[in-house]
Specification:
The complex is a heterodimer. Chain A is of the alpha+beta class. Chain A is built from 2 helices and 7 strands. By secondary structure, chain B is α+β, with helices and mostly antiparallel strands. Chain B has 2 domains: 324 residues, Naphthalene 1,2-dioxygenase Alpha Subunit, Chain A, domain 1 (Alpha-Beta Complex), CATH 3.90.380; 111 residues, Rieske Iron-sulfur Protein (3-layer Sandwich), CATH 2.102.10.10. Helix content of chain B is 26%, strand content 23%. Chain B is built from 14 helices and 18 strands. Classes of the chains: A alpha+beta, B alpha+beta. The complex binds FE2/S2 (inorganic) cluster (2 copies) and fe (ii) ion (FE2).
């Protein structure tokens, strides 16, 4: 089952498979997503905010929780569990997220 | 393009990186020429020895050949603005009392009584005479004997024998430096002509220390210093800064014993350059460093990076003017915004320009080479003639205290960044002592200030 991800504010959409991270799926679909550690779960630059469909996300691992500590402090206006790392989260269901840096790769 | 011509090493960065010089050239004001200067070279790629961080013997060599030979910042002049004000500076088991003996004279003495060696001054105070709490020996502010109770009982000693022992003391830019070595070269020679020339751009004499925090950090003092002398760690330690920190584009220069880096801000890290627009840089910068209430109608809109830098620089000019009344209209965007870090060998990093004239100082924790005292202070410029309050005194934080949870408003925006630095420094000593680690592998370009520093230390220590 593929899930559809909509990304604000650039209004991009792409599809994610069940065993794929959002970061990997975005890259596969030609979307530039901020990353420094290339998915090692260390740099936190891939983080996004959940706008809808929170129930469709896999729960964060303790490691992701720990990495998210710093990021959450900067986004106290959204519920704690609405801040996630794209290289760690899996989804099963359609969702909308906010990631400022996500862009369509230049043709 | 200057930027390409003066590229110091092929491995400095891929061609797509923008160098600081490029941003300097788009500045809205003239930038000091020395910021374009380059004084750097390839120091090689050798793995460094780790003895200097883990060996007690090495520490003893450092005490003898480094700490007792170098000029070091003891305090700011405005720590002791009034005649009779004095402050203690402690390093590697030695203590020095720095005292203002006349409105324009500052002197330094070993902080020890010539009777039986009692420490004379604990921290800081104001006195008419220097005296010892044990048997009440006392001295004039210039260190000469004032009174010795039962003087007849010390017939073997002349007054000169009983005078306080003086320590070399010279001043520059309202920093009070001391040197334990009587034969040391004058301070100005030690700093060198380049440093003196560069700093004419940023006089610090009429600046007040607005905060001063200290913390004992469980690592060798040099490891803590290095943590503030390379920008490479932004990716690991301060990722929130990447949208407005051109980390790998930073420029590193050597000046004798000393070093400098220039880091452009308001422009993104090359790591995420492709996904960061000028507006993103500005938004990220302002959400990190300003209170939400400052921009009720949202952040200013920009469409180019030079514009983002100009807008941020202007906001900083405005807030400094509001805070201190000083007029920085003529100062370039780069001087208002960028991180320009000078390392005054061996243990102070002071930021040039006006963005955040912060001062870091590092020392071994007494004679423990496995922990250190790290202090952070900041200066605020004052207009000529305006009366400055005395400098803020040192406030020590507990070992596990977080800067971000302190009540001081000065820490509101930088507390989190400092906590991130401390978090990394808490882990380094232990890992470095592991048998599985043979020695630091420093980046050729981004960590060459660290390599340069270690070479200078090794040279001094090797002189034994
Ligand atoms: S890509 Fe670095 S934390 Fe996700
Ligand atoms: S990555 Fe730099 S110390 Fe480990
Ligand atoms: Fe840092």
């Amino acid at each position: 089952m593929l899930s559809r991800v909509t990304v604000e504010p650039a209004s991009l959409t792409f599809e994610v498979g069940p065993d794929e991270t959002m970061l990997a799926a975005a890259a596969r679909s030609g979307i530039l997503w901020p990353t420094v550690c290339k998915g090692a779960g260390a740099c936190k630059t891939c983080y996004f905010l959940i706008r809808s469909g929170a129930q469709h996300f896999s729960p964060p691992t303790p490691r992701e929780q720990q990495e998210l500590m710093w990021v959450r402090r900067r986004h106290q206006d959204v519920p704690e569990d609405h801040v996630r790392l794209a290289c760690q989260a899996n989804v099963s269901g359609d969702v909308t997220v906010f990631c400022k840096g996500a862009r369509a790769a230049h043709a | 393009m200057i930027a390409d011509k003066i590229d110091p090493a092929d491995m400095r960065k891929p061609a797509s990186f923008t160098s600081p010089e490029t941003y300097l050239k788009t500045d809205t004001r003239p930038v000091p020429q020395h910021m374009f200067e380059e004084s750097t070279w390839d120091l090689g790629n050798e793995v460094m020895p780790k003895e200097g961080y883990i060996s007690g013997e090495y520490h003893q060599l450092e005490v003898k050949h480094l700490w007792k030979k170098v000029w070091q910042v003891a305090c700011r002049e405005n720590d002791i603005p009034e005649v009779g004000d004095r402050i203690a500076y402690d390093v590697v088991g030695q203590s020095v009392m720095v005292i203002r003996t006349a409105p324009d004279t500052v002197r330094a003495f070993h902080n020890t009584c010539q009777h039986r060696g009692t420490r004379l001054l604990e921290k800081c105070d104001n006195v008419k005479h220097i005296s010892c709490p044990f048997h009440n020996w006392s001295w004039n502010l210039d260190g000469s004997v004032h009174n010795i109770p039962a003087r007849w009982d010390f017939p073997g000693a002349s007054d000169a024998d009983l005078a306080l022992r003086e320590v070399r003391c010279e001043r520059w830019n309202a920093f009070v430096f001391i040197n334990f070595d009587k034969d040391a070269q004058p301070l100005e020679n030690y700093l060198g002509p380049d440093i003196l020339r560069h700093w004419r751009s940023w006089p610090r004499a009429h600046s007040r220390k607005t905060y001063h925090f200290g913390m004992i950090v469980p690592c060798n003092w040099k490891l803590a210093l290095h943590g503030f002398n390379e920008i490479y760690h932004t990716v690991g330690v301060h990722p929130q800064g990447l949208p407005f920190t051109a980390d790998c584009s930073a420029k590193y220069d050597f000046y004798g014993l000393h070093t400098r880096f220039i880091l452009s801000l308001g422009v993104p890290s090359p790591f995420i350059g492709e996904t960061t627009e000028p507006q993103d840089s500005l938004d990220a910068f302002l959400s990190q460093y300003s209170p939400p209430e400052a921009f009720p109608n949202g952040f200013p809109q920009v469409s180019t990076f030079p514009q983002a830098r100009a807008v941020l620089a202007d906001l900083l000019r405005g807030s400094l003017r509001q805070m201190t009344g000083v007029d920085l209209t003529q100062k370039s965007d780069a001087e208002m915004l960028d991180a320009i870090g000078y390392m005054f060998f061996p243990n102070v990093i002071h930021w040039g320009g006006y963005a955040l004239p912060v001062i870091h100082r590092f020392r071994p924790n007494g004679n423990d080479h496995r922990s250190c005292l790290w202090e952070i202070m900041a200066l605020a410029p004052y207009p000529e003639g305006a009366k400055m309050e005395r400098d803020a005194p040192l406030v020590m934080l507990e070992a596990n205290e977080r800067f971000a949870s302190r009540p001081e408003p000065e820490l509101r925006f930088i507390g989190e960044v400092l906590d991130q630095d401390v978090h990394a420094l808490r882990l380094i000593q232990q890992g470095l002592e592991s048998d599985g680690f043979s020695g630091p592998r420093l980046g050729n370009y981004q960590e060459r200030n660290v390599r340069h520093f270690e070479r200078q230390v090794a040279k001094l220590v090797g002189e034994g």
